[in-house]
Each structure stands twice: as C-alpha cells, then as structure tokens.
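User: I'm writing a tutorial on reading structure tokens. Could you give me a worked example: one chain, its sequence, then its tokens, then a sentence or two explaining what the tokens reveal?
Assistant: Sure. Here is the example chain.
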Amino acid sequence: MPLEWRGKIVHATLTIGENVLAGVDLLPGDYQPPRGFFVLIEIADSSDAERIFRQLSEEGSVQMPIQETFWARRFGVVTDPFGTPWEINCGRGSSGPC
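And here are its predicted structure tokens:
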C-alpha cells in the first residue's frame, strides 16, 4: 500500500436493520466504474425505503424516482455519488408496514 493511502478508508460497512453490506476499495490504478449490475435491496417499511433512497440520491443521480409500481409499494433506481447503482424495493409481499 502506498504511503499516501495509509490514512484512507479501505473497508466500509453499511448496516440496514439486521443486514450488513460490506465493501473494499481498490487502489486508484485498479479502479473501474461499476457497470452491468445493480445492488438490489429489499426494505420492509416504505418510509425506510424512501429515506434510504433519498440518502443514496444526495449528490447522486436518479434513474427512476421512488414510486408505487405493479409489483411494489415503493421502487426506485438511483446511482449514488460513488457510482454504485441501486434498486430500492419495498414489495407488496414484504413483511412489515409497506
């Protein structure tokens, strides 16, 4: 690891309820923008889905605003400020107050 990277954050953990998503950065020369996938997260509560979508979209870009669809009470597509594409889903069959 280069000396200038010793103060950087290399590992990150995102905890949503009882679920944990962890990630690791690459060195600058190895990085490529994400493509060909979405991180799909199923959220049981519609207000939580809207809050998480809103937070991911801050300084990001919204491809589909969070809204009701024929399969979900809330669904939206967003790319966060780091270039990670997300699909937020609060399905009709989800447990909880969706």
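What the tokens reveal: The CA atoms of residues 30 and 60 lie 23 Å apart. Residues 29-91 form a domain with the 2,3-Dihydroxybiphenyl 1,2-Dioxygenase; domain 1 fold (CATH 3.10.180.10).
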